[in-house]
Amino acid sequence: MINLFAYNIPFISIFLLMISAVITPLIPDKNRIPEKLSCFVIGFIAVLSAYLLYVLTASGQTLSFNFPMGHFPAPWGNELRAGPLEAILALVFCIAMLLSLLGNFSSTEEDIAPKRRNIFCVLVNLLTASLLALTYTNDLFTAYVFIEINTIAACAIVAVKEGPETTRAALRYLVMSLVGSGLVMIAICLLYDLTGHLLMQNMHRAILVLVSTKSYLMPLTVSLALITTGLAIKSALYPFASWLPDAHGSSTNASSAILSGLVLKGHIFTIIKIFYRVFGLEVIHLLRMDTAIFILGLTAMIMGSVHALRQVNVKRMIAWSSVAQVGYIFLGVGLNTTAGIAAACLHIIVHACVKPMLFTAAGGLSNAAGHKKGLHALMGTFYVNHWAGLGLAAGAFSMMGIPGFAGFASKLSLTLASFDSPVIVWSLSALAASSVLNALYYVPAVIVVLTHNKDAHKNFTAPAPTRLYKISMAIFIALNFYLGLFCVPLLRLITRGVNVSL
Amino acid sequence: MNEEIKTIWRNFFNWIMGNGPRPENEVIPPEPPPDLPFTQKPKDKYSRFHEATLKERYSQWQEIHGLHIFSMLYSGLSVLTCIVIVSLLLATVAELPPFGDEKNPANNEVIRRYVEHGGHETGAQNIVAGLILDYRAFDTFGESAVLFTAAVSVLMILGISRRNIFPDKASPKAAQTGENYLLRAPPRLHVFKEDDAILRAVASLSIPAIILLGCVVVINGHLTPGGGFSGGAILSTALILCANAYGFERVHKFFNEKTFIVSSSTALMIYALSKGYSFFTGANHFHSIIPKGTIGNILSGGLILPLNICVGLIVAGTLYGFYALFSEGEI
Amino acid sequence: MLEKLLLNHYEAAAVILSGIGLTNLLLQRNLIKKIIGLNIMDTAVYLFLAAKGYVEGRAAPILIENGSGGWLTSSSLYVNPVPAGLVLTGIVVSVSVTAFALALTLKLYEHYGTLNIDEALLKMTHEQEVLEEKITKAEEEVLA
User: Fold this and answer.
1) Nearest-CA distance from B203 to chain C in Å?
2) Which of chain A's residues have a Cβ under 8 Å away from the Cβ of B261?
3) B73/B187 same-domain check
């Protein structure tokens, strides 16, 4: 069985991050101690999550457990729930967060005033804590509270870099997110009124009873639609994604990496939990939400790439590509099978590793070109910052789905998952079209970066990349290859996790 | 008569469109220089005159790019969306369990346990206090963290950059890199009257009473309606009144940015540690050393009383902090 | 349907109120009014929750003494306490979010001198044009 230490890991990780967030304003902001402390804490939690994953899966059978928050059992108190899927997501979130912070350590120093950096650390800690809480929580209202922490902290790390564009982007992001939270709150109230519970499993049982007696079907549908729309706005599903390029394109590199790679994923995983754990796949199919999500996912895959094609700013291009990638995840969710959800989870992991790498690489390249973000200005920057160029190339190949890179694994699993589904033609053609579109804007970017440009080369006066940058970029690239080459055991692990997740 | 209706209608239309009437004391330069190319930088970029030319360009821009069609489309679509959402929700509400019926699904075994055993399980007479600070304490912890996040973010946005507004306080690095655009920001219009005898007299009488009321509401949170959040809000009004009557410098002497950060962080930390202990013992089925006390006594309810005090400190500091940051730019 | 709506009239009012808030949020171009719309939406949710907690003929969930030193703990005496807790959380979240949004708005106003987001956008594009011109000029000078 699970030992006492592993049993307490979800609780320890959330509270450790919270306490480190609360301590950070009190410690002096010299020598970048706050940032080092946050990095250390996040790294420590990554180790803990890895250990939890090992304990849950090592014995051959797949274990999962509920952790009551307090002295009162399930329907009365709050609860956390941990299984292999939650553990692996926590691990990936922590690793990606750590690498995004470390890789952009020097650019953070340039962009953010020292006093603000202290608060940036507080916000990063709170953001990680809320992501882990969203991952582990088994209670819908707790999820709402942590979604709000996530929203405020995410908008604040956009605004942490001073300037009118970031303020405007943060405001736009905030307003859109708040529409989303309002819808989520209304939906939670409706669901509470219909079921009388806030815990996911109890809600699930009550919903099954309601569905079998065919009562309250209309309120159920409306609340499901509202909560999905609310979370879709926050996770930048296509028609609601207009805030994303501004917010991700204008903020500092570390913030862009964190927002694109992680913040969206917390909300998407909440949607997956609501679909899978609160309603159940049959009910979702009965209420027709799977088709809606599937169509929106398809649209996002195409439209995100089409928008990305039109960008000249490299960060905005990568941001629009995130919209397309979110479409892939929703495509997997919309298939409404265990395999589809496992593929969606794999793509969450892949995107959480690749997108921070792309943003870190783009930051390094534009730094090498003298803080210019236009694509044409990046010509030949590979020869100034090799690691950033390599990172951009690896990320671009991964997004295109070249075999051996991480993106290939998730695209393959999405394809395999859609074989059982009646909508296979649609999903396969969308996957193919989206891959071609991805190639259309990523290949020129890579070519531009690799082109030797003797004239411009003299103007590049940027300092060489720091050792930290090189190390984190190397880890990113290694992760990318690992995910691309050894995806089968990972996918099996995720499938086991999805199966015990209910 | 007709004219009046027209004026009222125009004002209403302006209000709907978000163009309120301009303040009366606003000075608009009489004659803006006629033809200044758009790309050419005017002498004083942030003067009203520039805004007037921009407005002109803005209206032209709308016409040229068909933006007004877009904005009309947008308005029409958003009204349509809202009508659809409201009618859907109304249809939903009609289907919901009837109002005030005791057979509703929400009145189930969960509520029965909260009411019937809440007293001796949490030690609190106020069932809501027992619910939010004991049964569902994790939510409330998250809620305090939301407030902390917002306080820290507002402090970052308004407080820390404010120092860069005045050139003498701007950091040398920002001045070098040319990122001192904040120098152009207009100072905030905050008029503080030095000797307002009436305000001071009223404040000196009412501040002790307000503080007393706030303390009572916080400390009796587990017995009567109230608790950390409402009590903290009352306490913060005392601070705000003090700042308005005697000036922010007076409040600075005992409550400044450092006190704010230290008090909020410490209170939230005590909250996290004590509640963490309670969660830890509960989840692992260890014995908790916290006594519950007898219901109805002031020292009862286990952790609820200290937690209420912590929350009260956080809320009082944060709400005053918001006020000070918005009006003065620093705590 | 109308009958049922009249039965659930608090909820219906809450829903209409939230619709008004949402329309305000989407339609207004003035940021302060947008934030007010947001607050209306939040308030509607509290009204909805308060209506959901109510049970006919029951008292507020604070234990009443039974006259002989004990407490009346029958669940048929008190209304549902859960919505009260949820409303409390909602209020705190709303306060925090409003303060944060207003802080960003103030910052935007300090820079652009306007609360209208379209105007701010126009000024921003204009500023960027000026900045780009400056950069190209400087580059030309360097090359020359």
Assistant:
1) 26
2) 25-26
3) no
Number of domains in chain B: 2
Distances (CA, A) of A156 to A42, A117, A120, A121, B100: 20, 12, 8, 11, 41
A468-477 tens-digit pLDDT: 889 999 999 9
From CA A48, how far away is CA A69, in angstroms rounded?
19
Q: Mean pLDDT, to the nearest integer, of A455-473?
A: 75
Confidence of residue B109 (pLDDT cuts 50, 70, 90): confident
Q: Which residues of C84-119 are buried (b: 16+ CB within 10 A; e: fewer)?
A: bbbbbbbbbbbbbbbbbbbbbbbbbbbbbbbbbbeb
DSSP of C83-138: HHHHHHHHHHHHHHHHHHHHHHHHHHHHHHS--BHHHHHHHHHHHHHHHHHHHHHH
pLDDT tens digits, A210-252: 999 988 889 999 999 999 999 999 999 988 888 898 888 888 8
Indicate the residue type of A421.
S
Residue A239 DSSP one-character state: G
State yes or no: ipTM above 0.90.
yes
> What's the rounded Cα separation, in Å, for the pair A377 and A373?
7
Judge if B203 and B320 occupy the same domain: yes
Within chain B, where are the H helices? 2-16, 48-64, 67-95, 109-122, 127-130, 137-154, 161-162, 172-177, 197-219, 228-246, 248-254, 257-283, 304-327
Question: Distance (Å, rounded) from C-alpha B217 to C-alpha B224?
Answer: 8
For strand C71-72 and strand A78-82, is the pairing parallel, antiparallel, or unpaired? unpaired
Statement: residue A376 has pLDDT above 90? no
Give B167's pLDDT tier (boundaries 50, 70, 90): very low
Q: Residue B200 is encoded by which pair of tokens?
A: 């001071």
DSSP string, B166-231: SGGGS-HHHHHHT--GGGGSPPP-----S--HHHHHHHHHHHHHHHHHHHHHHHTTTTSS--HHHH
Q: How far is C43 from chain B (nearest CA, A)?
A: 16
Q: Looking at the structure, do residues B188 and B63 belong to the same domain, yes or no?
A: no
Residue B89 · residue C5 · CB < 8 Å:
no
Identify whether residues B130 and B77 lie together within a single domain. Answer: no
Which of residues 189 through 248 in chain B touch A, CB cutoff 8 A? none
Run of H or E residues at C65 = strand C64-65
Reported pTM: 0.89
| Residue B177 pLDDT > 50 | no
Q: Tell whether B118 is covered by a domain.
A: no
The β-bridge partners of A169 are none
Q: Residue B275: which domain range?
A: 125-327
Residues B75 and B161 in one domain: no
Averaged pLDDT of chain B: 79
A115 in contact with B, Cβ within 8 Å: yes
Is B78 in the same domain as B136?
Answer: no
Q: Is residue B94 in a domain?
A: no
**Which chain A residue has the Cα nearest residue C85?**
A141
For chain C, list the domains and their CATH numbers: 2-59+73-115 (1.10.287.3510)
| Cα A206 from Cα B46, distance rounded (Å) | 60
Distance CA A14, CA A79 (A): 13
Q: Which amino acid is at A365?
A: L
In a domain, B8, yes or no: no
- Best mutation target, C46, C88, C104, to test chain A (most A CBs within 10 A): C104
CA distance B265 to B271: 10
pLDDT digits (tens, 9 = 90+) for A338-358: 999 999 999 999 999 999 999
Same domain for B79 and B130:
no
Q: How far is B6 from chain C (nearest CA, A)?
A: 22
Instruction: Please give the pLDDT value at position B29.
Output: 52
Q: A80 phi and psi, to 5 degrees?
A: -110, 155
Residue B28 falls within a domain, yes or no?
Answer: no
